[in-house]
Amino acid sequence: MNKREKVGEKTIYYNSLSIEARDILEKIKNNEYVMGKTLQKKDNREVRLLTIDGKKYVLKRERGRGLIDLIFRTTLNNVRKLKEKKFNNIYDVEIIAEKRRGMGVEETLILAPYIEGREPREGRDYNKVMESLRELHSMGYFHGDSKPKNFICNHEGAILIDTKLKRSKFGVGKWKDVARLQKRTPEKLDLTRYFGDYRKNIAYYLAVAWVYKKELFRGVRIYQEVF
């Protein structure tokens, strides 16, 4: 069960059943952490390492986008549900915090343990990615942003990170994952091995149209690359 607590200007949401989440919250309230190096910095996002009691975490800070940030609370719920179903190839989102201004969200922060590994870069890595996606899809969810840099490969397989983690309706979400992964991957993937005969599924073509909509509007031929 998720709970929320007010800490300064921020409302913090956390899994009340997680001992680690409760401990982290206390450490944060008492400023018992060390902020580390910056892993990524963009206009609307910053990702930094954070250390608590010698353990490394990743803190992602994003500029608010109004009520749309409610999606992050849904992510916290869905991560918990998938963990309960023994789907372990996903990052543990321990805490989500929001700084609100009126009805809107000014800033969102997501804290998760740091995962050792690397981005997928060769055939066997992408096989692990597709195995993780197939298992996720079988549980009725999809990644939502399945580009290679949103997976970490290690001895446990391909771990999903930075995921929107939504419920898949009518199967289109699943095929968006497949189309996005193929679009962002430098090599041709054996999609049939993991996702069956996708060419016979109308939802796949709807997903391709969505993922490649900018190219289609510009009149770019995408058929050879995708099909």
Secondary structure topology:
Layout: E1 2-7, E2 10-15, H1 19-29, E3 34-41, E4 45-52, E5 55-63, H2 70-84, E6 95-101, E7 104-113, H3 123-138, E8 141-142, E9 151-154, E10 157-160, E11 166-167, H4 172-184, H5 191-195, H6 202-211, H7 213-217, H8 223-226
Antiparallel strand pairs: 1-2, 2-6, 3-4, 4-5, 5-7, 6-7, 8-11, 9-10
How does this model look, in words?
- There is one protein chain.
- 35% of the residues lie in helices and 29% in strands.
- By secondary structure, the chain is of the alpha+beta class.
- The chain folds into 2 domains: 2-113, Phosphorylase Kinase, domain 1 (2-Layer Sandwich), CATH 3.30.200; 123-226, Transferase(Phosphotransferase), domain 1.
- The strands form 3 sheets. The chain has a 7-stranded antiparallel sheet with strand order 1-2-6-7-5-4-3, with helices on both faces. The protein has a two-stranded antiparallel ribbon with strand order 8-11. A two-stranded antiparallel ribbon has the order 9-10.
- Helix 4 (172-184) crosses helix 6 (202-211).
- This is LPS biosynthesis protein.
- InterPro entries: Kinase-like_dom_sf, LipoPS_heptP_kinase.
